[in-house]
Amino acid sequence: MEAIAKTIFPIVVLFGAATIAFGVVLMIVAYTVLAERKVLGWIQGRIGPNRVGPWGMMQPFADLLKFIFKEDIVPDKSTKFIYYLAPIIALTCALMPMIVYPFGPAITTIDWSFLPFGLDEGIERLPLTIGQIDVGVLFVLGITSVGVYGIALAGWSSNSKYSLMGGLRSSAQMISYELAMGASIIGVVMLAGTLDLNGIIYAQMASPFRWYIIPQFIGFVVFLIAAFAETNRVPFDLPEAETELVAGFHTEYSALKFALFFMAEYVNMFTVSVMVVTLFLGGWYIPGLTHIFEMGSVAYAIASFVGFLLKISAFLFLYIWIRGTLPRFRFDQLMNFGWKFLLPVALANVIFTIVIVYFLNK
Q1: Is residue 208 part of a domain?
Q2: What is the pLDDT of residue 108?
Q3: CA 287 vs CA 162, 213, 305, 315, 346: distances in Å
Q4: How many domains does the chain have?
């Protein structure tokens, strides 16, 4: 019986951690939508949502109820199976990177003596990562690239000209900016010497720069611009350009299916913010925090997690700020900028980093 308990306990912890992580992310996403509406209201001289609950704090739940009770309209000529599958693909691919993101340092000071069975040596370490893999960077890039299939399939299966055009735009946009995004990460990987996200954070702790935004500032800027394009946000929101394509790829979607696409966009924003913080801003690592708390303690983990969330919040605010500030590009400008400027700059940064790393290791 004790052996069974030892086997089941890590699995229960894993599923519990995944459930908590996804729940926390979805709650952050819900209030990111509210924050966006509030901040855009302030930028445009409006009040924003302020009727549902104190200061409009219950607005996300009111929106959810609205989506649940809205009439679900399905086009007669649509390819039904793909039409229903597309929003599920989009949201699933947006959530999956959360599995490998390190949300904080491992806790090593927990006393497990309260359990009715003993734990094997090494299990006492409680990492704040659901699943740590050696190629976490590749996993994130791969799974987020698959997410564009949800948008492309939604555009095709709806049997609508506007939807199809939005899906095609999204595919072209993803191909154009995925290359620049991948190239911008190569410099960080070369400096850290690993594709493991946890390893990249620990490499920044040992680096004299502390955060890779300093030696890889060009890569940081390229990654940030490509991330805006990858998440279809202003000024790169061509797949759902309201003035041209009604609502783009989700023109024919309503009720909960539209809500899934809506959530997927904001989860992607959160995913990109976590990625840029992990690669360029030290992830959960805050210089000097070890002078206040013991590393491995619960207090150190909580403080690191709070600092991690504050860094992510800064990038989410940047998303909102740019939406309220910049106009949308034309599609030809989008393509020209990606291929003729951003990709060459990213490749030049890779070559420069190769030269620097070579002479440092010589």
Answers
A1: yes
A2: 79
A3: 49, 14, 13, 19, 28
A4: 1
